[in-house]
Amino acid sequence: GVIYSIISRVPVPAPGLLRRNDESVPQAIRTRYLQLPAIPQRVRDLAVRLTDGAASPYERVVAINRFLIERYRYNLQAPPLPAGADAVDQFLFETGQGSCETFASAMAVLLRAAGVPARLVTGYTTGSYSVLTGYYEVRNSDAHAWVEAFIPRVGWIEFEPTPGFDTPETAAARSRGQWLLRDAVQWVGRWLVSLGGRAGGGSRSDLLWGAVVVLLAGLVLVRRRTEEPEENAGVAPIYAQMLRALARAGVARAPAQTPRELLDRVPGAVKREVAVITETFELTRYSTHRPLPDALSDAWEALDHIHRSLRGPQGRGNLRGYLTGIASRRSR
């Protein structure tokens, strides 16, 4: 019964930066993310063989990733692990099949054995898209595991070792409209299968007309959800101007900082005005709700107040000291 509206950003570093032959990994990361338990020697030998000749850590990761996707099979009903057997060794050399956790565990172990810091990550895939509601339904069955590898001067990068799942590169290259259209078509297919089952197969004409109606509805929803809402288009420039004004005065928003985290850093003299703009921006950018009719005009008024408060040499480079001066002058 809980619905979340989220924004996801997939980092896509430049290929030249990824492939740079750089081994400068911080010691804290080496200490934690290169640890391995006692594993069979043939697992270590496989890691060395797969990465032999790789010119950079990134190329070692790609070699192991490709090997797992091309050589092994995804299967939730893989044979049980024999008593005393090593799970990764059994997967790599005996069964050749396993769940996403098996693939991710094997890749993380092979990467660490090849000298690349790696960690297993668990979470959820996007779930099933519903044309009727326009939402993704994420269930326990959508739980998934994948791998992050540490690339020097880039950071932690996601990799998908399990066959049949979208890679991060695929996700980054696909627009929102393409995602929604693909998922809408898949939803129609599932709906037709269930309709045929309930109706004992149903007539071809009934199924065809049903497909047409649902697909048209899906395309309308796709268009509606991929177009920028009018209110969002209105508040986005206001928020951008506010960010520039704050940055000039010494309070810049960090790349990974949320609007609410930035608001918590703003001193009191313009905090109320920044809060007005932030709340309107969050409402229109991160939810399906619409602001009140006067919200945009309130946001413009708040922006004007921020500009007037920060104008002048005192406001440049030292916001906290300048705003303290504003507050003291108002109290007098």
How does this structure look, described?
The chain has 332 residues and is mostly helical. Helix content is 55%, strand content 9%. It contains 14 helices and 7 strands. The protein has helices at residues 15-18, 27-33, 41-51, 57-71, 87-95, 100-113, 168-173, 176-198, 204-226, 230-248, 259-265, 271-286, 295-310, 319-331; strands at 73-74, 97-98, 118-124, 128-129, 136-137, 143-151, 155-159. A 3-stranded antiparallel β-sheet has the order 3-6-7, covered by helices on one side. It has a two-stranded parallel ribbon with strand order 1-2. Helix 4 (57-71) packs antiparallel against helix 6 and helix 8 (176-198) packs antiparallel against helix 9. Residues 225-232 and 313-332 have low confidence and may be disordered.
